Amino acid sequence: MRENVEMPSLFAGLTSEQTKLIIQSAEIRKVLATDTIVNAGSSATELFHLSQGTAKYFRVTRGGDEVLLWWLSRGDTFGIGTLLTEELQYIATAEAVDNCELLVWKKDQIRQLADRYPLLTENALHIVLYYLAAYADRVVGLITETAEERLARTLLQLSYRVGSVQSGGVELAITNEALSRLANVSPFTASRQLKKWHRAGVINKSRKKIHLASPESLLLD
């Protein structure tokens, strides 16, 4: 799993003036916690760039269970299918975990910008490959790692991506349920292992928050 590889930026390589013009062309959309941003299966008509907040990106099975694909955070871009000529559908549902602010471009608008600034398309491809590599790592982890190892690596990845650096460690705002789904382990296993790490002093667990004194020490457990 790519614990310390940064998410590629949609604006990588663009000048500050070009980035400013692209951002100014976007609609600024504010979404409240628990509100749906996009629905899986609906037409991909808008490209989203999360500038504030966090959101969960998931699919719902026929039985009604959520399969959590990604924990979206500041700097994440989704709805990339809008850059293609073909009319596509969103592959998953995005729902705000807390209050979010997004930059939003309509399909025609972002395609025109991509024609003007080809680096946008190149960066979008880089983002897609990043997601694909992360999903491939998760599949390999299901075969080669124990549940505890998957949980440790998921925590380590999240600490790099969305963790808040504080005195004495890194804090993550995430529930046990969401963490277990991202790590592909049962909620019982996640709870048991978190309690074990808590007793060992590796983490400090509170409601919907995990404080990691030393994220790298998880892999030494």
Rg (CA only): 18 Å
Number of helices: 6
Structural class category: alpha+beta
CATH class of the largest domain: Mainly Beta
Largest sheet: 4 strands, antiparallel
Q: Count the strands?
A: 12
Helical fraction: 25-40%
Q: Termini separation (Å)?
A: 17 Å
Strand content: 25-35%
Mean pLDDT: 90
CATH homologous superfamily designation of the largest domain: Jelly Rolls
- Give the overall silhouette: globular
- The CATH topology annotation of the largest domain reads as Jelly Rolls
The CATH architecture of the largest domain can be named as: Sandwich
Give helix and strand order, one letter per element, not per position: HEEEEEEEEHHHEEHHEE
Q: How many independent structural domains? A: 2
List the helices and strands and how they pair.
Elements: H1 16-24, E1 27-31, E2 36-38, E3 46-52, E4 55-60, E5 66-72, E6 77-78, E7 93-96, E8 100-106, H2 107-116, H3 119-144, H4 147-161, E9 164-166, E10 169-173, H5 176-183, H6 187-199, E11 203-206, E12 209-212
Antiparallel strand pairs: 1-8, 2-7, 3-6, 3-8, 4-5, 4-7, 9-10, 10-12, 11-12
Helix pairs in contact: 4-5, 5-6
Question: What features would you describe in this structure?
Answer:
Helix 5 crosses helix 6 (187-199). The strands form three sheets. A four-stranded antiparallel beta sheet has the order 1-8-3-6. Strands 2-7-4-5 form a four-stranded antiparallel beta sheet. It has helices at 16-24, 107-116, 119-144, 147-161, 176-183, 187-199; strands at 27-31, 36-38, 46-52, 55-60, 66-72, 77-78, 93-96, 100-106, 164-166, 169-173, 203-206, 209-212. The chain folds into two domains: 16-142, Sandwich (Jelly Rolls), CATH 2.60.120.10; 145-220, Orthogonal Bundle (Arc Repressor Mutant, subunit A). It has 221 residues and is an alpha+beta fold.
